[in-house]
Amino acid sequence: MCGIVGIAGEQRPEWLGQMNSTIVHRGPDDQGEYRSADSRVALAMRRLSIIDLEGGHQPMRNRDGSAYIVFNGEIYNAPELRKRIESQGDRFETNHSDTEVLLHLYDEKGVSLLDDLNGMFAFVIYDQRRNLLFGARDRMGIKPLYYWRSNGRFVFGSELKSLLALPCISRDIDEQSLFHYMTLLYVPDQASIIQNVLRVPPAHYFIYDLTAQQLTLRRYWQLRFEAVEERSEGEWAELLREQLRSAVTRWTLSDVPIACSLSGGLDSSAVVGLLASEGYSRIKTYSLGFVGEEEQSWSELDLARQVAQRWGTDHHEIRLQPHELLSDLIHMVWQLDEPYAGGLPSWYVFREMSRDVKVGLTGTGGDELFGNYGKFRTYETSRLIQAALASRRWSESGVDALAALMTPVATLSNHLPSSWRWVGRGRFFSQLPQTISEPFGRYYYANFDYLSDECKRRQVMQLQNGRLQDIASYLQKLYDDSQSSSLRDGLAAVDFRTQLAEEFLFMTDRFSMAHSLEARVPFLDHPLVETVFRIPAAMRAKSGDLKYLLKKSVSDLLPADLLTARKKGFVIPIELWLRRDLRRLTERLLNPDRLRRQGLFRAEFYEHYVKPHLEGQAVFTAQVWAALMFQLWHSIFIEGRQVERPVYDWQSLC
């Protein structure tokens, strides 16, 4: 696991080192640089040694010295690929470096080498013979890769902060990214929060022609939703078990000890159970909970403890006071690289794990594979209501049946006309219209739980560019591009491209690498993902039990209590923080005069959202927290122009 950076074109000698020094946390074990003879191509890396500890130094060259690579990630089928290459008569210089496997494959197959790879990766190869840079990002977007180009320069890096270390890159805010962020609480799509700094999308590669100074970006893989076989539920469960076992086994490839995050949920518990059942002894496991009686109703520490006891793991419990998160808030914002208003507690799991090991497995991706948190329920219910309205066949029992599908009913009510009156027992009866129009295309309702496009334009954003794309149309296009005939599959495709890649995997990468820990996600092994999406959607996840099939496939590995437990999550008291501990900071960073001068948010955002929340007149937790986290990011990266980790805390900004 590493951090990588590079520059092509006119450059100053010190630039490469400046970029590389910002990502020491990604690889404290080793570093390396390569500069071409004409000094117009420079590559560098920081290395966290996991595989071939002695022989994996980078940048690494191919046999004739015509190509050099910097590589972040792990290729889990590298041993099999290496054997195949050696059987053809090729010789390797390293003991078992997966980086060298990539170079051999590139010499043999060029860009089509991507079809052979199983793993998580972001790499760039400088090909002297063809005078080009070839780079790629893994299928799911587990490992990041940013780039910028202008006036004959092309710059890339694992993290945004490494690019911002260069004086040639301006720090202007990308309005479209900020517009999306205020609804989603993360920045989606190819654009970053900084104008002209882009991300290589998941499952894409690029070729940058150094002579013509032209960039080509292409997709090499995408989710397919085709049930190609007819199997019984039991047969699918058996196949799923085998694929998951193979994935977990593959993703333990390492020359150093590994550990597991154990949340007490089904996904991470299944990973631990499969590892233990395959003979891995004395696995280290780590669970997080908050101190306090009021937190015990949602805590999963007990369930995690049951799993640990079942398999005899070396178990570690981390117990936090919620306010302890605040002490690390500035450090988190710095390491996150871009504005983010989502979950933060995994920071402490990764921090604790990193004290003992360099590699940790997590259950990330399981929710997206099986049911997408039940997001389809609202849409399916809406369609059923439309069908009932069209047929004019309403009855009390029929409406009750529909209500049983709705979780929660309040979610559906947000999409129904104001003339519908709630009359209890899960029923909307009064003034039923003849039709319900679907507002955003065939199926997809945008996530307006926080801020709608209209609201952002009217009350939140000072927009200089009136042509910004609505979040609704952006998400709808992703849905349509999936070309799926199934609602559930289409929603899964959207989540894989947005929330999974650019929120959960984004956060997992930044928080784990902040502590020099390699986080691995075996649920996102691409053969496993492809298998899961061959399972008919209605069998893959049931409305009342989203992970029914997964439970069926691994039930013998898990405590009985876990199989019936409801999914929980960490509840951070942000609502109260904003009114108490963070009130002075919120009032300072979101006051109307500052917002007006900054030119990004409307001054009236304070009166509409901030003031009512702070005074307890309304609950606008997500809206105010998103704006505050952006302002913290802005203070560090834009106003402070930080190129090194800040040494101050959030109180200093008050």
Quick synopsis:
This protein is of the alpha+beta class and 654 residues long. The protein has 27 helices and 17 strands.
Summarize the helices and strands and which ones pair or pack.
Layout: E1 2-8, H1 15-21, E2 30-35, E3 41-47, E4 60-61, E5 67-75, H2 78-87, H3 98-109, E6 119-127, E7 132-137, E8 146-150, E9 153-157, H4 160-164, H5 175-184, E10 198-199, E11 204-209, E12 214-219, H6 233-250, E13 258-261, H7 266-277, E14 284-290, H8 301-311, E15 314-320, H9 324-327, H10 329-336, H11 346-354, E16 359-361, H12 366-369, H13 376-391, H14 396-403, H15 409-413, H16 453-460, H17 471-481, H18 487-514, E17 518-520, H19 526-532, H20 537-540, H21 548-554, H22 560-564, H23 574-579, H24 583-589, H25 592-598, H26 605-614, H27 621-639
Parallel strand pairs: 13-14, 13-16, 14-15, 16-17
Antiparallel strand pairs: 1-3, 1-9, 2-3, 4-5, 5-6, 6-7, 7-11, 8-9, 8-10, 11-12
